Amino acid sequence: MALLLAALAVLGMGGYFCVFGAFHLLPTGYHPIRHAVSDYGVGRYAWLFRWALVASSVGILALAAGLAIEPGTPTVTLLQLVFLFLIPVTRLGMLKYPTDLEGQRLTRSGRLHYLFAVAAFALTYSAIAGMTPELGSVGAWSSVSGFLSVLRIIALVSLVLLVIALVPRLRVVFGLFERGFLLSTNLWCLTAAICLLVETA
Fold first, then answer.
1. CB neighbours (10 Å) of residue 75?
2. Is 90 helix (H, G, I), strand (E, B) or coil?
3. 0.90 surpassed by pTM
4. What helix, strand, coil percent values describe the chain, rounded to 5?
5. Which of 139, 144, 158, 201 is most deeply buried (CB count within 10 A of its CB)?
6. In the predicted structure, residue 117 carries a pLDDT above the cut 70
7. DSSP code string of 146-181
8. What's the pLDDT tens digit per position in 16-71?
9. Quick one: pLDDT at residue 10?
10. Around 142, how many Cα atoms within 13 Å sit in the side-chain half-sphere?
């Protein structure tokens, strides 16, 4: 069962990166530095945004479940796993309530989207920050502990910078820092999933 979950986690996270790359190759009309990733959820390519969230959510759920039942990861705490399991819940909220594009009047849907996005970011970083030192000392994860630590640092720096970029004069670079956070955290999950696959194979 753990092997199946590990494979599903790798496929889910890998699928996310494929869709994420498509965002930036297709003529979406959005700029990778200025526009938030959530903006892709509004417009003709909104279906791609939905697939990205679904793929990542499936990957994270499978990773959390795999880590929960894999005996090679006894140091992962229940709280850290709860954080992982809650991330897809916030994604459902982001899907149900689309964001408001820059310059538009803030709507109820936009406010709720921001709320779920903040929760998703907080849960994601909390899970990664707690699990990085724990996983780095066991099994296949120990061989990539330095890489996981670097990704955690990049995620933290990106998170701080994207919060600073909420200042109106700095909004023009918000998308850059948000993408730094999303790429580092999802790459962390993909790496952890690959290690889980190695452990269970």
1. 14
2. helix
3. yes
4. 80, 0, 20
5. 158
6. yes
7. HHHHHHHHHHHHHHHHHHHTTSGGGGGGHHHHHHHH
8. 999 999 988 989 888 889 888 988 888 888 899 999 999 999 999 999 999 988 75
9. 97
10. 7
